[in-house]
Amino acid sequence: MITMWSGGDQQVPFALACALATNDLLGDLLIEFGAIFAEPQGLPPQRDCDHRIHLLLGTTLIIIEELAVMVQKSKHLVVFTGAGISTSSGIPDFRGPKGVWTLQRAGKGVPNASLPFHRAVPSLTHMALVELERTGLLKFVISQNVDSLHLRSGLPREKLAELHGNSFKEICPCCKTEYLRDFEIETIGLKDTPRRCSDKSCGARLKDTVLDWEDVLPPEEMNSAKEHCRSADLVLCLGTSLQITPACNMPLMSIKNGGRVAIVNLQATPKDKKASLVIHGLVDKVIAGVMSKLNLRIPPYIRTDFVQITLRHSLKKKCVRWTLRVTSIHGLRAPLPFLQSIKVSFPERPDMKPVVLKEQPFSLQRETSMNRSFFMLLTLNFTDGCSCLSSSIGWPVDFLDDLPLLYTVPNEMEFDINVLAAAV
Q1: Which one of 55, 57, 129, 406 is least enclosed by Cβ atoms within 10 Å?
Q2: Among residues 164, 280, 313, 330, which one is catalytic?
Q3: 415 three-class SS
Q4: Feature table: binding site for Zn(2+)
Q5: Where is the Deacetylase sirtuin-type domain (predicted)?
Q6: CA distance linking residue 284 with residue 31, whole number of Å
């Protein structure tokens, strides 16, 4: 097995490292990234001979296995995440080779995300953490990210501290109820949003949860994060440069109580010397190897979005004036970012012309005879990037059959909507 030592005088040739890789995963890892990591990026080379830094050029299965064993033997594993775990989701990091601050220092401006924020999906690492939590190995996650991908992945809210907030979450300042949205909140800096708490006994105006530079870290999140770091026998730092205070010092709390710190990051960090194990490389590749060694399957990500379909009507002699609305469950004015348009058609009534609704909020008004029922078919056309182009849902409408003034699609239809929206 080949290990590259930070203070060593000899480097194993890249071709030899690839030849000695004993499985496809590691071979692919070395071939794809071996030429990139001659030295850790961001800080001068380490010269502490007692401190090992395993570079991907020389990393072999033994190093991946070492991290896997640390995870498997841990009694209280805490994972500390940064922007580096979301770069494969299309969200730029800050200090990486194509990071926001890296490019700004080079005079190249702010990098563009590869897709809209609301369409980013959890990375392989996000989903691996879900499985580690499900098996009981992972006790808590502390995140500096605001992209909501941990919650979107299915990680339980009670197992997560979001130190810098969440771009998709609002909170009631009075009763502390949290509202997770499928759209990005309009403001940052703990400001008022256009919506109010849905609790009838409260009704306070909601606030966004994303911190601005002058804002202090939320006490509730900080307290739970510190508590778990103190209890941890292993804090695994993934995709973070560990340079933003005070958050960057939290993992070291475990060391004071006899715990260990492991770091997986593309660049060197100021905390590398205090870690028991450091791997400089892409987090997804390393975590894939760890999960393989643990014989754990990384679950697929299935996104679920919800829509609400309502049909209001009023009587007008022998006619019925009705209004169809397709809205978000988060409110009439909340966007449905995964829907491009909706075609409304009436297959059994050639006298009723179909229409395509292209603007949100999606709404259609018609007048029809009270004495004639019809079948309404909605074809929901999804935005680019969804796994399917469209899906349909339909139901019979009969205004003589004791239809209430507000008609909501039956429960089984709502279930169908959830299934088709999960194709995003």
Answers
A1: 406
A2: 164
A3: helix
A4: 172, 175, 197, 202
A5: 57-297
A6: 15
